[in-house]
Amino acid sequence: MATQVTAHAERGFSFLRIAIAAQTLTIFLQAVSAGLLLTSAHGETMHSVGARVMYGASMLYLLAAVLAWKPGGGSPRPVWHASGFLALASVQVVLGIAHVPSVHLPLGVLMFGLSVLALARR
Questions:
Q1: pLDDT tens digits, one per residue of 27-44
Q2: What pTM did the predictor assign?
Q3: Taking Cα atoms as reference points, which of 113, 106, 105, 112 lies closest to residue 38?
């Protein structure tokens, strides 16, 4: 019985790690598409699509954190981290739509750093 719980917790943690890695990758790709936004005609489309993918990756991170926490009985801390990150992603999207680059860009850098930190902790 303990082996089943441990195996289930391992799967939950690996799914959580994959979700954080996907989120980190999408944020990095957003930085690349932001650079293309300045130099290419297709940059705006890529950045807009990337924003939706990044937001979806943030929701996947929250789902993975809940799934790792609930069945395995682990710490709820990753759920709080993922919830906070989804809130930051929401603010980031609103700032991008409002064209407020003075806050949008530093927040993107902060989000990338926090995502890398979350990935390193897992």
A1: 999 999 999 988 988 889
A2: 0.84
A3: 105
